[in-house]
Amino acid sequence: MSKTTLGALALLAAGMALAAPGLAAPDRSNVAIAVSLRSSAANVPAPPVTFASESKLWLTGDSTLHRYSSQATEWHIAVTLPESTQNSPAERLARGFSHLEIDVPVGALKSGEGLLDTNMAHALKSDRYPTIRFSADRGTVSVSPAGDVQARADGTLLVAGVERPADVEASGRLEGDTLHLTGSKTLSMKAFDVAPPTLFLGTVRVADPIEVHFDLTARL
């Protein structure tokens, strides 16, 4: 798989790197993605990855008051890639990746409600664990002759100092050199020893589990 392609595929696992709620609808214009690529081929520089501005990652859930949504406004990715080839985008996608790592600063989870963001950061113990991290040492991708894409990454998720096995799946389309992937993942906050946040002296309680969503577009 090309280095450009793998940067996009790494993002499908970024959905695993969120595990706490906020309250506002996702705002695509706020998403800032920082990407760092490392090539496994010696002395082969990794080209920049081009993401469409509408790419987004957010989480949703329920509470005793109403449903909520919180957006990740920044995440950082490092991916180790196999040596690139000059094959078609579909052939490059099918090569998968050997390692990826995604960091999400807890402070980058924004709901649009200051009180909820504060409670979220407290629940995630951000004073001691300011970063949520997903890492995977293997990933698989299949592309049908019609351009339908299925992808999966298997790794571990570190939230609030607790690490658990985690996997994420995505599906989408490859049209020419444009890859579009979507997916979601159900996560339990309690599995990471995170107490679901409460507001207003416990009168508003957040339900567990939560749902992480991603909608990503990349140019290969």
What does this structure look like?
The chain is mainly beta and 220 residues long. 11% of the residues lie in helices and 46% in strands. It is built from three helices and 14 strands. Strands 1, 2, 3, 4, 5, 6, 7, 8, 9, 10, 11 and 14 form a twelve-stranded mixed β-sheet that branches. A two-stranded antiparallel sheet has the order 12-13. Strand 8 and strand 9 form a beta hairpin. The radius of gyration is 17 Å and the shape is elongated. The protein starts with a helix and ends with a strand. The N terminus is likely disordered.
Q: Can you give the mean pLDDT?
A: 74
What characterizes the major β-sheet? Answer: 12 strands, mixed
User: Based on helices, strands and strand pairing, what is the structural class?
Assistant: mainly beta
SSE order: HEEEEEHEEHEEEEEEE
Number of helices: 3
Approximate strand percentage: over 45%
Task: Kindly provide the radius of gyration, computed on alpha-carbon positions and rounded to a whole number of angstroms.
Answer: 17 Å
In short:
This protein has helices spanning 3-12, 89-93, 114-123; strands at residues 32-39, 50-51, 56-61, 68-72, 74-81, 99-105, 109-110, 131-143, 148-159, 162-175, 178-187, 198-199, 204-205, 210-219. Mean pLDDT is 74; it is low at 1-49.
Descriptive terms for the model:
two-stranded antiparallel sheet; 12-stranded mixed sheet; 220 residues; 3 helices; mainly beta; 14 strands
Blueprint (SSEs and pairs):
Blueprint: H1 3-12, E1 32-39, E2 50-51, E3 56-61, E4 68-72, E5 74-81, H2 89-93, E6 99-105, E7 109-110, H3 114-123, E8 131-143, E9 148-159, E10 162-175, E11 178-187, E12 198-199, E13 204-205, E14 210-219
Parallel strand pairs: 1-5
Antiparallel strand pairs: 2-14, 3-4, 3-14, 4-7, 5-6, 6-8, 8-9, 9-10, 10-11, 11-14, 12-13
